[in-house]
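Amino Acid Chain and Its Fold in Token Form
===========================================
Purpose: to set a sequence beside its fold so the mapping can be learned.
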Amino acid sequence: MAEKELAELLFLVGRRLRHGYLERLVPLGLNPGRARALRALAEAERPMRMVRLADELRIVPRSLTPVVDALEEAGLVRREIDPADRRSTLLLITPEGHALAERARDARRQAGEELFAVLTPEQRDRLGELLALVDDQPQAR
């Protein structure tokens, strides 16, 4: 299989996965960007500075502001002044945010299970190993 064909297949499968995930997120009142931010905050061991969350999500901080505004308005996160650096803002996930992050994680898992149901468990394991190998490569610039 030519490299371009493989890249195109991966793109098409990824698009189907994102579409299935989005269909499951909409009833939760989330979009993929808000779900990613919630997941990162839920997995963090302590409150996170906005700048760190932006780095983790690989977006510029100003792009994060409307995401955090929406999450805060929905009662899923709250902002606090960082006592260690009063110029910084910490993001704290609320119990409601944790619960919704778990539901979003389930939605992603369900979308993947549905998409990859055509594969045997062994094929899914092998695909996971191969994708992990590709993902572990340093990114070319």
In short: The two ends are 24 Å apart (CA to CA). Strands lie at 48-49, 77-82, 85-93.
